[in-house]
Amino acid sequence: MTALPGTVYLVGGGPGDPGLMTVRAVELLATADVIVHDRLIPAGCLDLVRPDAKVISVGKEGGGPSTPQDEINDLLVEHGKAGSSVVRLKGGDPFVFGRGGEEALVLRSAGISFEVVPAVTSGIAAPASAGIPVTQRGMSSAVALVTGHEDPTKPETALDYAGLAVFPGTLVLYMGVKRLGAITESLIAAGRRADEPAALIERGTMPGQKTVVATLETLAAAGEEAGIKAPAITLIGDVASLQPDLHWVERKPLHGRRIAVTRARAQAGSLSARLTALGAETVEVPTIKTEPVDVGTPLDPTGTDLLCITSTNSVDLLFDRMAAAGLDARALAGVTVAAIGPGTARALEAKGIRADIVPQRSIAEALVEAIAGSGRSYPKAMIVRAEEARTVLDEALVAQGSEVSVVVLYRTVREDLSESERTALATADTITFTSASTVRHLLDAIGGPDGLGDEKPRLASIGPITTAELEAHGLNADLEAVEHDIDGLIAALTSDAAR
Ligand code: SAH
User: Active-site positions?
Assistant: First the structure.
């Protein structure tokens, strides 16, 4: 849905996991002229906004003061009146302790049209993510969403502790971790069961989510001991006793690992997404990028007996160069196609080509063996590859009597690390290397092996060539993939984590 001019959208961003934003929130963020946002919003969601959008932060930044509500109201009215499309982005749901209702009233009285985009609220999502259903048949058939913001020691407190003490169901408290001791004492004093199960969930749905389960009486001390800080949800109710049976985030194979991905930005996303799905936190620190060579120069593989494709990157570039010669997949009709491994074979399949030769291990020596194993001879062979590739394959084919032409499709160049990437890298417990060039360029960027710091992270290598590069720098691979591709690397990481 496109954001309309002169309209203010009161949008909820959900509890923190970017995957829990609504489709509508994403669409509006991507089209609005102005974004006015709080501090607690999903990581990376501002990457979605238009490059020319005006982005205004009104949350507390680094402990500083937040913008007063009156000023926020004025901002919304001003931009709405000026005819802009405005997204007012909040954490969780905009109408649950989000002051969305107040802003809507101001907009209505200023005559500005608004829409509300509801969202997943943290009071339900954080418990769910911890393995606590807020209702459960036979245990809890009602939920109260309560603010813990009111100070129970002040006479003007708005919370009705006597009412909450007899509420027949789960209590979910937003805010107020600091006042938790006073709140739980007041609830017990008002008659709520001291031994009722209770839980604290910090950063629910986000990396670093923490859960503490105790009783109403012991929760504040248990939370303090575990170092629970805001943002956290407090849950009081028998359903908290289900957490030991239902917790699920912690059971993911890579839970608790912080893994750095060093491959090129264009490819990092797919590896990161798979690691995240397995429960890891990932930091992307691209150390290399690929630079196509001889773009637009026609390439005609017809008449070749054997075409060897030695990387996934090469597939698109090969077809681009063939297109420049007015050719498509049919040009490979009579050609034996050899792919370095299953990943490259899959990329070829997407182009309508089923590779004839695919070794299981994605390494040049295995490809040489597989070609020899085909039992045929190839008078004319073509290899398409990166500039800096090894020459094992070229030499082996020449030795087998082929006339070999090598076409360089791209080169790998260093990508500089930003300051924030450097900081993020230092927090990783594991660094993945998907090629020798990622090793070289990363070490280059951090000033050699010493740049890895005193508490050296685990180094994960995709295969022997990459491992050899680590060793050439005096480092060891703590783990090496058995299958030398992304699936193999992920398998090595999960079995390492299971140790
Ligand atoms: N409108 C928001 C709530 C805003 S009040 C919503 O619907 O979720 C801010 C409070 O929300 C925090 O103090 C904390 O109690 C809670 N909160 C927000 N995000 C949270 C998260 N990811 N995990 C736990 N609590 C969270």
Answer: 38, 60, 175
CA 113 to ligand 1 center in whole angstroms? 27
* Distance from residue 121's CA to the centre of ligand 1 (Å): 7
pLDDT tens for 300-321 read 999 999 999 998 889 999 999 9
Q: Is 205 in the pocket of ligand 1 (CB under 6 A)?
A: yes
> Does the beta carbon of 131 sit less than 6 angstroms from any atom of ligand 1?
no
Q: Which of 243, 242, 244, 220 is nearest to 232 (CA)?
A: 220
Ligand 1, closest atom to CA 120? Answer: 7
Ligand 1, from 11, 99, 122, 209: best to mutate by most atoms within 8 Å of Cβ? Answer: 122
d(CA 259, CA 273): 12
126 lines ligand 1 (CB under 6 A): yes
Q: Element (H or E) spanning 249, and its range? A: none
| Structure-token pair, residue 334 | 């009579």
Residue identified by tokens 């502790």 is: 161
Two tokens, residue 48: 């979605």
CA distance 285 to 68: 37
Residue type for position 123: G
- pLDDT tens across 372-417, in order? 999 999 999 999 999 988 899 999 999 999 999 999 999 988 888 9
Is any atom of ligand 1 closer than 6 Å to the C-beta of 457?
A: no
Distance CA 240, CA 146 (A): 17
Question: Which has the closest alpha carbon to 383: 394, 373, 398, 399?
Answer: 394
Return the percent helix, strand and coil in the chain, to nearest 5: 35, 20, 40
| Domains of the chain from N-terminus onward | 7-120 (3.40.1010.10), 123-249 (3.30.950.10), 258-287+415-498 (3.40.50.10090), 291-412 (3.40.50.10090)
* pTM assigned to the model: 0.81
121 lines ligand 1 (CB under 6 A): yes
d(Cα 358, Cα 343) in Å, to the nearest integer? 10
